[in-house]
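[worker-b] picked up task from shared queue
[worker-b] task type: protein-ligand structure
[worker-b] ligand name resolved to magnesium ion; SMILES cross-checked against name lookup, match
[worker-b] sequence length check passed
[worker-b] input payload:
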Amino acid sequence: MDKDKLVGTNPDVRNDPSFRSGFVAIIGIPNAGKSTLLNRVMEGHFAIVTEKPQTTRTTIRAIKNLEHAQIIFIDTPGIHSSQKTFNKILIQSAKNACREADVVLALVPAQRGREEENAFLFSLLEDIPQTPKIIALNKIDKVPKESLNHLTDTLAQSLPAEKIYPISALLGWGVEELINGLVGLLPESPPLFPQDMETDMTERFFASEIIREKVFLLAKEEIPYEIAVEIEQFKEDEEKNMLIISAVIHVNRPSQKRIIVGKNGELIKKIGMLARKDLEEFFQIHVFLELWVRVSRNWMKNPRMLKELGIMTG
Ligand SMILES: Nc1nc2c(ncn2[C@@H]2O[C@H](COP(=O)(O)OP(=O)(O)OP(=O)(O)O)[C@@H](O)[C@H]2O)c(=O)[nH]1
Ligand SMILES: [Mg+2]
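[worker-b] inference finished, payload out:
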């Protein structure tokens, strides 16, 4: 992200010296609710959410335009300690987002039993002492009200943050206060992106994520972690007023291909049907979707593929 190259478009706002704009990285352990929060603040479906940890694989930018501020939220893959090369790459992209951010928003789930994982997250935050940090204690709808004070006190002791906001990303509790708190920490600056822009991610990216989400929902156990979706064709047929999308689901092994295709092709058919429905809703146009399953051995270790898929940057 080269901030210097980006300028605001609205001349009124560019003359507003108190306008604030900047990048907020949302970080937290897997399953903390980061993508749910991104969707909530944006009031739309920008990032896929599942019950499974490690759903998000790339940083996802979405732009919240307010009257006197513009926040560029960056959703990130869950931070955890792992020896696997693939996971290390995901964690590295979250770390990079933190380093580039104007404010770091650490999302901590309010339920108990995750202290060790959070400790790893906090040690990362200590590496960026200069960056303002806010903690959001998420999923407070799941804990009794009486325990909230104790939880926020404990958190305040583990990490120096400007403020702790108890929230429910799922239900929207406390989210407006959180947004106001974040705005207060952003640098004074004209908008970094045009104010009618909500994201700079590509349409192909969203299409691939919608398909990946269906694999997460329908395929069992480890399978969703070992697949990647690549969009091979994405074009509008103006005559038919239709979007033609052709995508490849990469798997690591032939046995996984058999599972994704399913008996008599039933699973892939179901994935395609659900994905098409969501793609049509997202792009507001009829979609013709073609899905292929391809065995791409060790794609998770192949830097060229990881770069093409946007998982590895740089
Ligand atoms: N009850 C409750 N559930 C929540 C809340 N926020 C998120 N969830 C649920 O928690 C699960 C994980 O949510 P995600 O938004 O995918 O979590 P994430 O932090 O993006 O996870 P990764 O991308 O895997 O790191 C989903 O089942 C969400 O519905 C909340 O405030 N309350
Ligand atoms: Mg996520």
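[worker-b] attaching auto-annotations
[worker-b] The chain has two domains: 3-185, 203-308.
[worker-b] releasing lock
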